[in-house]
User: Fold this.
Amino acid sequence: MRKISCILFTTLYMLCFSEMHQFLKIPVLIQHYTEHQQQNPGIGLLDFLAIHYDGLFEKDADYQRDQQLPFRDVDCMAFNFTICECPAIDIVISPQNFVEKRKFILRNEVNASVISTSDIFQPPRCA
Assistant:
């Protein structure tokens, strides 16, 4: 009993809140296909589907009947919006008209190491 009620409620939910109810219109699709076969015996299923679902929907003599077919329009639409509050960031734009002053210290040392890729590994020096 519990399993049957679970299946029932799941089916009701899927039929009400999704496009699952379009599958209930499949008998209309089959009936409309047999109507087209009576008018034109050479029409195949893929040709029928191409006429009714491929491209623009033309308003012909059986337009009202075509609108009863499944998946021709959207009945249930759900939009989900996520609203998040981001902290305010104060951006201060300052003018770039200043001159940066740097002091360069020149040393006249005899034992100053020259840093290059070949001088990385050197023996220790005595002071």
Remarks:
- The longest helix spans residues 2-16.
- Residues 24-93 form one domain.
